[in-house]
Amino acid sequence: MKFLIITGNPKSDGLCKLITEEIERGAKAGGAEVEVATCGTIARCRVCGDGWGTCRNSNVCEYGDDGFNHLQKKAQEADLLCFISPVYWGEVAEGLKSFMDKLRRCEFAASTIEGALKGKQVLLAAVPGGSGNALLTCLQQMERFCQHTGAVIFDYIGVNRWNQGYKKTAAYNAALLMAKGVKNGETVT
How far apart are CA 176 and CA 189, in angstroms? Predict the structure, then answer.
């Protein structure tokens, strides 16, 4: 089983990196083949053409040579996904937001049929620093993306500096269970 962790974290250390490592560790312990991909270099959607460019007809971005098309393919091939981001200005990090905006457009038409993300289990994680504020608005932004693409949210993990001790365990366990094949809606004891 392929488990792809897509992070918007531009830093090589810190709490978001720590939680990413816990998710990776949990998924590996569950038997998944895990890859962590950073999308910090992906540029904003150019809203080309009449607002739908090649993304609507061919499900690829005409300007995806910034790493988007490669990461889109990885997301399509993965069995399980995790989106994790630090919280900046109450939203996901800019690189992850750009990736999600482009992917949403590329998968939009397909999501009503059999899009690559439709029915795919996804773990969402938001990690605010400092005040710990805006965790919910960041998770809501990721939730809307999942609704638009047909992805199924396995769980929401919100981690700040005060709850990191027990949320690290929750992140690990969520990834472990996903990798073992547990799906959204199944009771875990």
Answer: 14
**Which are the contacts of 2, defined by CB distance < 8 A and separation ≥ 6?**
32, 33, 35, 77, 78, 79, 80
Rounded mean pLDDT of 5-20? 94
How many Å apart are CA 113 and CA 119, to the nearest integer?
11
DSSP state of 132: -
| Alpha carbon distances (Å) from 89 to 49, 61, 116, 131 | 30, 27, 30, 12
With beta carbons less than 8 A apart as the criterion, state whether 154 and 112 touch: no
Average of per-residue pLDDT values in the chain: 91
Q: Which two tokens stand for residue 14?
A: 């810190």
Question: Which run of H or of E encompasses 152?
Answer: strand 152-158
> Residue 78 — pLDDT band, cuts 50, 70, 90?
very high
Helix (H, G, I), strand (E, B) or coil at 96: helix
Q: Where would I find the H helices in the chain? A: 15-29, 53-58, 68-77, 94-111, 135-149, 164-179
Q: Work out the average pLDDT over 149-175.
A: 95
Supply the pTM of this predicted model: 0.93
